[in-house]
Amino acid sequence: MLFFITLLLLCQLIGEAAVRLVDLPVPGPVVGMALLFLGLLIRGGEPPEELGQVANGLLNNLALLFVPAGVGVMLHLDLVRAEWLPILGALIGSAVLTVAVTALLLSLTARITGAEARQEERKE
Amino acid sequence: MSELETQAALDPVASELYEVWVYLATSPLLFLTLTLAAYLLGDWIYRRAGLSPWANPVLIAVLLLVGLLVLTGTSYSTYFDGAQFVHFLLGPATVALAVPLYRNVRALRRTLIPLLVALIGGAATAVGSAIGIGWLLGATRETLLSLAPKSVTTPIAMGVSEAIGGLPSLTAVLVILTGILGAVLATGTLNLLRIKDWRARGFAIGLSAHGIGTARALQINEVAGAFSSLAMGLNGLATAMLVPLLLRLFG
What is the pLDDT of residue B6? Predict the structure, then answer.
């Protein structure tokens, strides 16, 4: 268990270092995710069970991890009060449009290219 | 004077309580515990509401905590001394997204071209519609620039915002609000459009609502969760490249 926690941190650390060295436009953890993904691809087969447990432990509580940044809204209460209409309008309109455009484009092009969903991929 | 201090001046019991609060607030323990407790309460309400997207646990926890901090006159930096331990885990959790991604690698490979088309169209819609609607409704330039990268995960969005002249800390808040609203609005939008394919549902929610959308997608369906993680990562890249380009065209 400890080994895989260390592995996740190590991937992030290498990612952070790479971003600073090469001036990449993405954050370190995303590079770390790519590294771990590549590692799993090279290794092949099922991911190690304990890695799955560590990942599930974090991802089952992913939403919690956004709470501290969200509380930061209190730093901008005045600005939000002054511009609540454009902010809320932009966020709501953009969320609906983005979800709709993305999902429609994906399901239309999947139909055209023949990459229909298969039953066996709907299961874990 | 905050309300608690005023009360404390009037009432000896409240005064003692206030002293205990002042003492506890100097260590990270109090706000770490309160962050977890507020989230647990939010999550309990979310489950009681049958995972209804309207009872979003992040939204409930944020409202409870902001209310508490404002009422007690506590600064965000005091709060963050405790909350940073939770905030730190965002990094390793992002790395851990490689696992669901890998479990669905076959489905991803087979859907490569549709994914790229949806990515480019979706990323442009996320940035363009936010700036366009905000501008129509009279947002200031600083707010518009802070809105542009709101659909991608916090660290990328803050970097982009800073690079184009927005307010990174405002962007962080707009990112969280986007995630909450995306998680709230996606289910209804997708049902209205009759999109049943879990790949399209997941990719759309991850592209528009980054990690908060992905958290919800992972709870509902593993395939949706994997495509949502992928969309979140890819949209981080796409937005980081697209936003400066769009600003040069229209700025």
Answer: 60
Helix, strand, coil share of chain B (percent; to 5): 85, 0, 15
Percentage, residues of chain B above pLDDT 90: 53
CA angle, B186 as apex, A100 and B34 as ends, to 5°?
Answer: 150
Least confident segment among A68-72, B4-8, B19-23, B232-236 = B4-8
Q: Which two tokens stand for residue A97?
A: 């449009």
* Residue A17 contacts B where some CB pair is shorter than 8 Å: no
Residue A65 to residue A55: CA distance in whole angstroms: 14
Report the distance separating Cα B100 and Cα B218, nearest Å.
Answer: 9
CB pairs under 8 A between A and B: 344
- Nearest chain A Cα to B191, which residue? A100
In this complex, do B218 and A9 lie within 8 Å of one another by their Cβ atoms?
no
Cβ(B243)–Cβ(B148) below 8 Å: yes
CA distance A90 to chain B (A): 5
Closest chain B residue to the Cα of A44, Cα to Cα:
B102
Distance CA A37, CA B115 (A): 18
Distance of CA B121 to the CA centre of its chain: 22
User: What distance lies between CA B223 and its chain's CA centroid?
Assistant: 21
Note the ipTM here. 0.86
